[in-house]
Amino acid sequence: MREVNLVIERLKEKLNFKTDMELAKYLNLASGTVTNWKNRNKIPYDEIFSICEKENIDINYIFYGIYKNEKININFKDEILNIINNSNKKELEYFYHLLKAEKIKNTI
Question: How confident is the model at residue 72 (pLDDT cuts 50, 70, 90)?
Answer without folding.
Answer: low
